[in-house]
Every structure is written in C-alpha cells, then in structure tokens.
C-alpha cells in the first residue's frame, strides 16, 4: 500500500500549495439496478457503497483558507499514520459536513485503513456505514470540480432523491505518476435516499 502513502503525501503537498479544493473515499459497490444519467460530458449514477474503516481528522475552518487548512489536516493525519506504522488501503478523501462560501466549512480529511486502529487526540478511527450514493467522476484540475457537483445536484432533483448526509470526494490520481492536472480523476459522492 506504499502507492497510497505517496498519493496522500502528494495530495498533501498540493493542498499546502493551494492547488486542491476538496477530497474523498470509499470503495464502490456493485451497481445492479442502479440508475445512470448523463449530463453534458458528466455521467451521474446511483451506486451502493460498501462499509469502510478509516482514520479521520475533523475541523471547522474558514472556507477562504480551505486549501491550506486541508493541507495541514492531511499533514497531521499522514504523519500520525507513518509514526504508528498504519497503512492506507485506498486513496485519501475529504468529507464536507457544511459549506459556507462566505463563512466556515465543517469537514474531515481521511484515509481508509484495513483494521480497527487505536487513536488518540484529534485523529479518530471511524467506521463508515454502507450507503447509497449519487456519484460522478471529475477529470481535470481539483479546483474545477464545480460542474460535477452541479450535475449530481440536478440528477438528484430529477430522480426525486434527496441528499442524506455529508458529501465527499476521493482523489484517484497520483500526481507523482500523472503530472498533468487536466488528467487528475476525482470521484464525487452524494449520499442519497
């Protein structure tokens, strides 16, 4: 799982440089009977996501400082994992509990892990429940993910669904192996019911 540690460190560095706007996680489940809809260039689908284990660090921050502060959160999280010999089992994520463009954002930076982990301080072990989501893939620079959010929101409204929890992003591309931000892949998830 060394690859994921490198990905997390790279994401952390990009966050610190202000080049990342958000993040996320979770393994996608099977999509039997799931709905799929296409928006201009964006495919939105409904999937069931499996339960997962993760380490997270939660914070409320000024939205205007989100890139730098998210970088700090990932720095603490990855540092804790390295100090304690804990391996990531998938790409890092960021989950958004609230978002106020003019105020504060409540969020958490996280990393999937394979087993239960004893934690202390602000780093917490969590078990993420299985959930139904509307999801779409963003390809391009992290800060250009907005149209994917809009497409998912339109899809949810059109399908008569409702958002049922915090939205999250998962970084799928390792910037160490793909230097072109136009090729970065970020999966965006909205839990729905």
Overall description:
By secondary structure, the chain is α+β, with helices and mostly antiparallel strands. It has one domain (2-191): Multidrug-efflux Transporter 1 Regulator Bmrr, Chain A, CATH 3.20.80.10. Helices cover 24% and strands 35% of the residues. It contains three helices and nine strands. Helix 1 (2-16) packs antiparallel against helix 2 (66-83). The longest helix is centred in the middle third of the chain and has 18 residues, at 66-83. Residues 1-35 have low confidence and may be disordered.
Gist of the model:
With 193 residues, the chain is of the alpha+beta class. It is built from 3 helices and 9 strands; from the N terminus they run αβββαββββαββ. Strand 1 (36-39) and strand 2 (42-49) form a beta hairpin.
Features:
Multidrug-efflux Transporter 1 Regulator Bmrr, Chain A; 193 residues; alpha+beta; disordered N terminus; 9 strands; globular
Furnish the topology, listing elements before pairings.
Blueprint: H1 2-16, E1 36-39, E2 42-49, E3 52-62, H2 66-83, E4 93-99, E5 104-113, E6 123-128, E7 131-139, H3 146-158, E8 167-171, E9 185-191
Antiparallel strand pairs: 1-2, 2-7, 3-5, 3-6, 4-5, 4-8, 7-9, 8-9
Helix pairs in contact: 1-2
Residues in helices, as a percent range = 10-25%
CATH architecture: Alpha-Beta Barrel
Computed structural class: alpha+beta
Main β-sheet, spatial strand arrangement: 1-2-7-9-8-4-5-3-6
Whole-number tally of structural domains: 1
Radius of gyration: 16 Å
Query: For this structure, what is the CATH homologous superfamily?
Result: Regulatory factor, effector binding domain
Distance between the termini: 33 Å
Shape, per Cα inertia axes: globular
CATH domain topology: Multidrug-efflux Transporter 1 Regulator Bmrr, Chain A
Could you give the count of β-strands?
A: 9
Chain oligomer state: single chain
The total count of helices amounts to 3
The level-1 CATH class: Alpha Beta
- What's the rounded overall pLDDT mean? 83
Q: What is the string of helix and strand elements? A: HEEEHEEEEHEE
What fraction strand? Answer: 25-35%
């Amino acid at each position: 799982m060394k690859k994921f540690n490198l990905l997390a460190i790279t994401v952390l560095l990009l966050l610190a440089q202000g080049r990342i706007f958000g993040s996320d996680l979770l393994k996608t489940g099977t999509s039997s009977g799931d709905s799929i809809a296409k928006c201009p260039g964006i495919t939105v689908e409904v999937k069931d996501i499996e339960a997962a284990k993760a380490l997270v660090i939660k914070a409320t921050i000024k939205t205007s400082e989100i890139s730098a502060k998210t970088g700090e959160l990932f720095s603490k999280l990855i540092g804790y994992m390295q100090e304690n010999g804990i391996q990531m089992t998938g790409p890092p994520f960021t989950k958004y509990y609230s978002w106020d463009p003019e105020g504060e954002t409540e969020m958490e930076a996280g990393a999937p892990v394979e087993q239960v982990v004893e934690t202390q301080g602000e780093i917490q072990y969590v078990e993420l429940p299985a959930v139904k989501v509307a999801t779409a893939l963003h390809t391009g620079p992290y800060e250009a993910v907005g149209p994917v959010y809009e497409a998912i929101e339109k899809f949810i409204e059109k399908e008569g669904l409702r958002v049922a929890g915090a939205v999250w992003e998962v970084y799928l591309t390792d910037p160490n192996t793909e230097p072109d931000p136009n090729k970065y892949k970020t999966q965006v998830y909205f839990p729905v019911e």
